[in-house]
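Write out this protein's structure.
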Amino acid sequence: MSTQNMIVDYILQNFLFSDDRSLINPDDSFLAKGIIDSTGIMELIFFIEDQFGVKISDEEMIPENLDSVTRIVKFVARKKAG
């Protein structure tokens, strides 16, 4: 399963309580759309670290890295490459 699909499935199951993929666009801002709040972001970070074997530092916990599916996919790819 692709990184994007894993993230979308996690968000749908844990925050939107649905399996309807039309509820989330990969470029939607989680915070702006009210999909995930600040507590949810921490849960998402734990999921990313666990599922993708990356460590996210405090400095990396910024919207540019974590505020949409697309941003997370790019961030995870950078972490795995680096």
